[in-house]
Design brief:
- This protein is α/β, with parallel strands linked by helices and 310 residues long.
- The chain has two domains: 112 residues, 60s Ribosomal Protein L30, Chain: A (2-Layer Sandwich); 189 residues, Alpha/beta knot.
- Strands 9-8-7-13-10-14-12-11 form an eight-stranded mixed β-sheet, sandwiched between helices.
- Helix 3 links the parallel strand 4 and strand 5.
- Helix 1 packs across helix 4, helix 5 runs parallel beside helix 6 and helix 5 runs parallel beside helix 11.
- The longest helix has 22 residues.
């Protein structure tokens, strides 16, 4: 039966509560797998901690169940609102919860959520698309940070793909989810196979492809736009027209973007650095830092354009 877990002057929250006392319980097994990064057959992923559970419940995506430990139950009034009253709440001991948790010091609360299935076809509607495409970005922390920056700076979506046999870390894996601070549950994320297959639908909806490259790799030594024999310009971030539909390609942390993707891009974008940085070891920016700079410049241009409109 529904059980009242707490109330404030503004609201009261009800839950359908089940107590779990066996390590072999099917729910605990499902949470254990999900929090370890294994997706359910329906795409369900596990999130852990007050911040991510609150993000899951506020994302508008289906939440299958919430699991709390004895000590974690105190967080329920904070994360469960009236709209979440129908979500099953499963209770267990601190010891059993620790056995399914992915973190070393669990907060005692987790949830099973099914993220949205995004598609490029939906990007053609509404405001001009801005997509960040992660090509072989292997570090989950970088993946999560890029997705967090994409949401913060107004991107339409993020996409992940592989190139040269190097795949991108799962954006819904435990470390990437924590690094995204919940953005992965709100921002549409498109997961594809090979990069070429993923970029084809972007071109069909007239999205400009911009490849992020290191200045040295681009052959650029200053901020002057350069036109190569291929006709693909090398530009600084502020020389790109980000007000039009655009996709930013971010490559592998060590290898960067594959040469064929760079050659096929509509533009190559590099981020100039202060003079004298190379001698002290700063040859290029971290993938997440570079993506954040480019996404911020895109937001700046788009905001400025909106402010000029009568």
């Amino acid at each position: 039966m529904p059980h009242r877990i707490g109330s404030t002057a503004q609201q009261s929250t009800k839950e359908s509560s089940t107590v779990i006392s066996s390590r072999e319980n099917r729910w605990l097994k499902k949470f254990r797998s999900a929090l370890a990064g294994e997706h359910g057959d329906d795409g369900t992923v596990g999130v852990e901690g007050v911040r991510l559970v609150a993000a899951a419940l506020g994302s508008g995506q289906p939440v299958e169940a919430v699991l709390v430990s004895e000590s974690g139950a105190r967080h329920l009034p904070r994360v469960l609102g009236p709209s979440a009253s129908a979500i099953p709440v499963l209770r267990t001991t601190d010891k059993l919860f620790a056995g399914v948790a992915d973190t070393q010091t669990p907060q005692g609360i987790a949830a099973l959520v099914r993220p949205r299935q995004a598609a490029f076809e939906n990007l053609a509607a509404g405001s001009p698309a801005l997509v960040v495409v992660l090509v072989g970005v292997q570090d989950p922390g970088n993946v999560g940070t890029i997705i967090r920056a994409a949401e913060a700076f107004g991107a339409s979506a993020a996409a992940t793909c592989q190139a040269d046999g190097i795949g991108t870390a799962d954006p819904f894996g435990p470390k990437a989810l924590r690094a995204s601070a919940g953005s992965a549950l709100r921002l549409p994320i498109i997961r594809g196979g090979a990069a070429a297959e993923l970029l084809a639908p972007l071109r069909r909806v007239h999205v400009k492809i911009c490849a992020a490259v290191a200045g040295a790799a681009a052959g650029a030594e200053d901020s002057t736009p350069i036109l190569l024999q291929t006709g693909s310009p090398i530009l600084c971030p502020w020389d790109v027209d980000w007000k039009a539909p655009a996709a930013i390609l971010i490559g592998n942390e060590g290898a960067g973007l594959p040469a064929e993707l760079v050659r096929g891009a509509d533009a190559r974008v590099y981020i100039p650095q202060a003079a004298g940085t190379a001698p002290v070891g700063i040859e290029s920016l971290n993938a997440a830092m570079a993506a954040s700079v480019l996404l911020y410049e895109a937001m700046r241009q788009r905001n400025a354009a909106r402010q000029k409109k009568p």
